[in-house]
Amino acid sequence: MTIELIYFFYMFVSLFFLILSLLLFVHNRRKMFHVPKLNGKYSLSVLIPAYNEERTIKETIQHVFNTDYKNLLEVIVINDGSCDNTLRIAKELQKKYKNLIVLDKKNSGKANSLNYALKFVKGDFIAIIDADSYPHKDAFSKMMGFFDDEKIGVVTATCTPLNRNNLLERLQTIEYKVIAFTRKLLEYIDSIYVAPGSLSIYRKTAFLEIGGFDPANMTEDIESTWHILKNGWKVRMCLAANVTTNVPNKFRAWWIQRVRWTVGGFQVLKKYFRYMFKHGMFGLFVVPFFAFGLSIGIIGVGIFLYLFLSKIIQRISIALYKINSSIPIIESVDLNITPSVLNYFGIVLFVMFLVFTIFVLYTMKESLFKKEKLWEIVVYMTLYLIIYPFMIIKSVYNWAKGGTRWR
Amino acid sequence: MRYRYYFLEALLITCALFVIGFLIGLGIEQARNEYLRSSYYETEKDLLELKEQLNIKNLGRFTCEELSEKNFEIGNKIYEQALIFAEYESSAIFTKSQMIREHRKFDLLRTSYWINSIEIKNRCGKKVFSTLVYLYDYPAETNNEIAKQKVIEGLTYQIKSSAESEIILIPIAKNLDIPELDGLISKYNLNSNSVALIVDEKDVFFYSDISKIREYFEIDR
């Protein structure tokens, strides 16, 4: 019965978070795509850290300058010791855009680059954009209105993949949409735990208060968001503001990126664990949610591997005995499988999550272009998500070894 | 804090859905058990009828052919029942302990059936049918035991399929303290063998005798 209890526990936790998401949506459904009216004239500086981004830097800069935000003060590209043509391309664009500033420094990582650029920032608000991400024309103007509320420290946007050609890219498209949607839901309990580097706008005072990014952390965006939350600032998500980004198109690159994110998550958790149950929703939900999520992920993989391997050992043992005795490995009687109640529970839960995912994609469609095929959603919910727990294991291993470098 | 209502509401709904799920699950398992129970009573009734037909006062009223035909019918039912029971038992979650208790009840019925079959064979004085009693330990503890049981189950399934109209297959757990069964098998010296096959109360085979079993029943490899 112990194993069954563990299964029920996992199902209960999954169902709880699904219901919580649905409730948050139901109570706030009219506000999901809300864009606050922009009242203030907020000056905005855009920081683009770049390392070997010759393929995308030009387009990123052009997209930033093409936005319709009136008070865009400056765009600062920080070349982090690139070995390619990133610096040359950025400098060439300075002829076209007068308020484009290009800084060049030795390679020291994204966090250090951003902290370095902070000295040159003149605006009251700082937008941080990855050098392979393209903000939509109205992204800044839709986001800036949130800052009328003086408690808001960061506003982030809906980030979706630009490249959607192969299956892995399309699966990431589904994932990014679901993440954006659930991030918006987390806003309603003041628990957005990351303002991603693809596009987030910081209030300069909040940013200076936390002392910039932590270079020791591999996911500087998670760390800075946690720091800001801990200091009592609020984080908002503008679902209607969009930024597209280049996502890994090969499994290996995707795996490395996700392991890095997860290791960064461990680092952040370690750093802020002492704030568990302190500092409002940050300590009451964000830290425990993260800790709990990672723990049950690791424990879940352990249990799954134990059960799977013991089942495999048993099956192999039976098969060997049968082969030695010239008995067919599978008899027709073996195919009569009566599903257990746990199987029914699992199917119901899977269908609920499937419906939720489809609903999320349906809700998000007005701001996104392609319709996902149902089979891709099923692949996403089975094969794609199943990889995650294994990634957590790999991340634990990397973390124990001393982590991985950002670049 | 106003957010706690979201969490409380979610918790309450999750609990309510879980309770509903548990009740439905329990209902499904109870329905399966009910099916087994009614099939048990039906077989028990058939067996009682057969016993009545075997009764001394009915001597001569029923031919050996009739008795063995009826016995065969019950035997097949018992075998089918055993297959369904094994399936339901392996998938039981809420009623697992109940199923373990039920297992003994079914084994009692199967023992009673075996005794009846012996009596028919004794009464009719000729080989009207063959009984193949498959004795095993319940529940099997180790992987080796499980594997051995699976092999013998597979073999008995092959035997039964190849001679459906000649052999009655009676699977009985031998370690559930059924006095009648203990009495019947005491003479076979089963010792620590977790599985055994008894053919017509004469020939006993163990796991190590698989090739002999094949030869005996002329089963192709």
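The mean pLDDT of chain A is 91.
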